[in-house]
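Re-run with default settings, no changes from the original entry. Doing this only to confirm the output is reproducible before filing.
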Amino acid sequence: MKANILREAGMGTGAVTSPARPLMVCAVAALLLSIPALAVEPDVLICTSGEKFIGELKSATSAAITFNSQAAGEITVPWSKVKELNSTHRFAVIPKNVKISGGEEAKKVPEGTISAADKRIEIKPEAKTAVHTVAIADSGHVVDAKSFQSSFKSPGLFGGWSPSVSLGVSTVFATQDDRSFDGDVTLTRVVPDVDWRNISDRTTIDISASYAKTHSTLATNPATVKAYIYEGDLEHERYLVPRLFGYGEMTFDHNYSQNLSMAQTYVGGLGLAVWKATGQELDLKGSLGYVQRRYYKSGFNKDLFASTFGEVYRNKRKHGIEFHEELSFIPAWNDSPAYAAAGKAGLSVPISENFSLDFNAKDSYLHGVPGGYKKNSSEFSVDISYSP
C-alpha cells in the first residue's frame, strides 16, 4: 500500500518522469539565454583634449555640462572643451532666458535622446521622427525628461519640504555660572523648486528658541538672571504673476527680557520681487492685520490694527554658501506709540555634505514695554546646522 502511494505521488524508485518535462525546461532556458540584456548603454563624453569619459549625463546649461563619470565621479566640463557628447537617456532642452509657467508651454520644449558636437545639440524625440537642432549658446538648461515632467506635478501636502535643524550650547562655571542654549527648526518648500520655472508657491515654517541663565555665586551679591525667547513663524506666498505675490503670515513671540508673555500677529498683503539674479532675490513686502501683545504686567497689553512693511534679501553663492537678511517696521494705526521693528541676518557656510556652520543675528524693538525693561532685544549665535 505504501509503495503504491509513493509511486502515485511521483516519489520513490518506481516514479515515472515524463520525457516532455526536461525538454520544456531546456527550451525555456535556451529562450532566456537568447534574449539580449536590456541594459541601457552608457553616455559618452569626448573632450577636445582627447579624454574620453563613460558614464551618465546629469544636466547642462549654456556654459557647461555636469557628467557622472564611472572613473572620475561627477565632473563639470565647459562646452568649449567638449568635442562630442552622446546620450541614450531622454532629456528636455529648455531655451535660454525662458521661464516655463505651465504645461502648455512645456509641450513646446523638445525632448528626446541627445547628441552634441560643433556647438549644436541634436534632440531626437522618437524613432523615425524629425531631429531638433539647438545651438548650445541658445540652450538655457538641459534636464532629464523625468525631472522635467515631474516638475509640473503637485508635491502634495507633505512633499517637497526642505528641513534644517541648528543647535548651539554654551556652559561656564566660574564666579558666575552661565548656561545658554539656542536652537532652530526650519521647513521650507518652494514649488516648483527648479531654476527654469517660475515659482508658484513658497512656504516657510520656522520655530526658534533661545535660553540663557546667569547665577552669581558671590556671597555679597547672589543673583540669578534669566532670558527666554521663543518664536514661531508661518508664512505662505502665492505668486499672482512672475514677480508679484500675495502672502499671509502669522507669528508667535515670547520674550522674557522685554516682559512680553506672548505676541501674536496675523497679517496678509502683497510682495514684489524688485530684483532677481542667479541665486539672488530682493523682495519688498507690505501687509495689514491684527497684532496682540500680552505682557506680564497686564496694564501694558495691546490690541492693535497694524501693518508690516519690510524687505527680504536672499543670496545663494557657489559652494553652498548662503546669506539671508530681513528688515521690517510695524506701525500701529490705532495706537501710534505702540510701533515695533525687527531685523535678522544669517550666513551659512557648509562644512560637509549635510552640516554647516551658521552665524545668526536678530534684533527686536518694541516701543511701549513696561518701565525698567529695555525696548531693544538683540541676539547673536554661532550654531551647527544639519540639512538632510
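Residues 1-18, 32-38 have pLDDT under 50 and may be disordered. The chain has three domains: 2-34, 43-150, 162-386.
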